[in-house]
Each structure stands twice: as structure tokens, then as C-alpha cells.
Amino acid sequence: MTPAAAAALPGAPFVHWRDGRLWLEDICLQTLVEQHGTPLFVYSQAAILSALAAYQRGLAGRDALICYALKANSSLAILKLLAQAGCGFDIVSAGELERALAAGADPARIVFSGVGKTPAEMRRALQAGIGCFNVESEAELETLNAVALAQGDGAPAPVSLRVNPNVDAQTHPYIATGLRDNKFGIAHDNTLAAYLRAAALPGLRVLGIDCHIGSQITSEAPYLQAMDRVLDLLAAIEARGIALAHIDFGGGLGIDYHGEAPPAADALWHKLLARLDARGYGSRKILIEPGRSLVGNAGLCLTQTLYLKPGAHKNFCVVDAAMNDLPRPALYQSHHQIVPLSAPAPQTPARVYDVVGPVCESGDWLGKDRLLAVRAGDMLAVLSTGAYCMSMSSNYNSRPRAAEILVSGASSRLIRQREPVHDLWRLENP
Ligand SMILES: *Cc1c(COP(=O)(O)O)cnc(C)c1O
What we know:
Blueprint: E1 8-9, E2 12-18, E3 21-24, E4 27-28, H1 29-36, E5 40-44, H2 45-58, E6 64-69, H3 76-84, E7 88-91, H4 94-102, E8 110-112, H5 119-128, E9 132-135, H6 138-150, E10 157-164, E11 186-187, H7 191-200, E12 204-210, H8 221-239, E13 246-248, H9 265-278, E14 285-288, H10 292-295, E15 299-309, E16 315-319, H11 328-332, E17 338-340, E18 351-356, E19 365-372, E20 379-382, E21 403-408, E22 411-416
Parallel strand pairs: 5-21, 6-7, 6-14, 7-8, 8-9, 9-10, 10-11, 10-12, 12-13, 13-14, 16-18
Antiparallel strand pairs: 1-2, 2-3, 3-4, 5-15, 15-16, 15-20, 17-20, 18-19, 21-22
Helix pairs in contact: 2-9, 5-6, 8-9
This protein binds pyridoxal-5'-phosphate.
Pyridoxal-5'-phosphate binds next to helix 10.
């Protein structure tokens, strides 16, 4: 895409061309690169809040709690922004619990998901007073019960059971989680027995039911199907005398990486609530756990072109961001749009490139077969990198992690410094 092609970019809200340069809200991205270097993650506060507002509109008037799944992007400044906007959090580790608390989260608005919670993590979460444990196996029920009974005050642990509704989310196999063969949740057929067991354990207080069927879901059908199956289970559980105060429908809504057209959060929830009402559960407390759809389209990764490497079969554009910064292409063969930060210099030929990083792995690519008019030194933006990029980044090849900037209107703030290289061996004993 060239600056002439469009003023706004699809899949990148609040990103637009102005005077031959790429801007995010009212900040020219080139100036951020000049101040902070590359690779550099930049997030739009307006994009995050508008994504949240779509959910808030969809759930308006209901007893609902939006628990942001912070593994999507766990930068403290973003957590703080979402906490102040009314979000709770969905955590999957004690580390995420401490992060959420450090960002000012209300512990009562935290739910704890994950198949492998350790007793130490359970103890810490009980002590902090989290809202609910989303328990994923019968064995975990027994461990949590024992941990709660051994706590000083003996208060029971609030639990919900994550059920596996056996629904195909129609997404990449690595991010489908609601099928029978996935490691997540309690198998559909074992759910009733697990609830009866939970209700009989004195260290547990049964609070709700939850599911999460996968990620990057781009149609409403899997959600409607999962809702029906969860409500069928809920009816069977309540028929046995176990009341469930809340229903947690998980996260998973997809974003526009490359022309996908997922339902808007408000439209999706209007549909889902109509179904919930029709089945008579409309006044139940509702929890949801969106991650990607709140932050994914709000972030860009800025990177500098280091070398152009023309070849007989392939041209390579070598940039200074890599799979350690942006693991999604290597992990899921995912597509991120890549656009220049400025209009190309005159006479720059447009060629088809594989955009690759410096890491010593053939899997280290950011984009394949991209038509780009670039020269060495030019800056590029990798779009839709607000979710599952920085939070999945590593130090492979002893590469320090990138810096992060939060933009709001005409102001920008460094929310994470570039990692100093000597920090990489700070914990080592040579
Ligand atoms: C990862 C995860 C989420 C968030 O998924 P998104 O696709 O990012 O919305 C929600 N709930 C659970 C249990 C998860 O593991």
C-alpha cells in the first residue's frame, strides 16, 4: 500500500497517512523512531478504548464484567488504562496476578484460568482475594480444596468449572481450545460429576461456569453453539441443586489482520444476549475474557530496513525486528500487513520481498511475498501487533526486548524502556 492508496488503513484504527507520512492518532511515527529507535512497539490509547467501548455497548444494561485476558499484552500502562476504564482481568499465572495488582486491579475482579495452577499460585491468589478460580480439571478441584482448607481463615475458594463444549472455533489448530482433544477444560461428559464433586468439597464455593473455545474467531456461529451447550450444562447442573451465579463465555473474538471480517463486539453481544434472553438466563451475571480483540489492532511494530538482498527466486528485505519481537508469523504462519512509514523516494523500484529478521532461523520471517518500494534505511510498520507480540517476545539471539510507546492524541509516552543489554545476564553466575 502506498500513501496515495488510502488515507486510513484497514485493520489499523487511528492509523492514517498525512503529508506522505504515517501517523497514529496525532503523532507522526517517524518522529517516534527518531527519538526511540527501532524495533519499537507503539499503541493507540484511543484504539484500545474504542475496542473496549464496543464490548461495553454490547453489554450495556447487564450485570456484566469484562475481564481483559492480560496474556495478550501485559504492559502495566495498558493494564492500568483498562482497569481505570472498568475492566477486571483474566490471569493465567501468579506472575500475571502480581502484574494486575501492580497496575491497580481490583482483586475481586480477577479470574484465574489455566490448566496448570500450582498450589503456591493458588495460595497467593486466595490471599489476594481474587474473584474466581476457573478450574480446568477434577484433579485441580481436589488440590484447590486442600489449599483453601489449609489457609488461615479457611474461607472457601470461589470456583467456576471451565467446560469444554466440544465446539469447533474454526481457527488455527494452535489456538483452538474448545474441541474434545484439546488439553483445556473439563470434558463435556464429565461436567455434571465434576460439579457434584465440587459442591461436596468444603474448601470450595461453586460460583459459576465458564468456557473459552479458542482465539481469532471470525464468525458468530461458534459462540452461539458454545452458548447453547454451556446453557444446556448449566440447566443440568442447577437441576441437581447447584446454583450458578455467573456464566463466563471466555474470549476469542478475532481481529482484522488481513481482510478478516470478524463480527463487531457490540453486534455479536446483541445476538448472544438475545439468545441468552430467549433461554431465560438474561439476568444472570455475565463475564467475558477478551484479549486480542481489545489490543491487537491497536499496536504497530516499527522496524528499520537493514539490507535488501535480491535473489534469483526470492528477494529478501532484512529488517531489525525479528521472531523474538514478533513470534506470531513463526508460530502460527500469521499474516501482518507491512507498510512503509513514508512515501517511497522517487525511482525506488517496487519489488516482491520476503521481510525477514536477523535471527538465525529460517522461521524468522515477518511477512512473505510483500510488494514494497523500499531502500535500505527505510522504516516499516508491521500492523496489528498489539496482541501476542510483546507479551510473547524473548531474548533469543541475546536480543534485548523492544521499547513500547503509548500514544494518546498528540502526546506519546514511553511505557517500557528498551531493555539494556547487560540486563540479559543479570541473573547468571559465570
Ligand atoms: C487466552 C485466553 C483468553 C483470551 O483470548 P483472546 O483470543 O485473546 O480473546 C481468554 N480466556 C482464556 C481462558 C484464555 O486462555
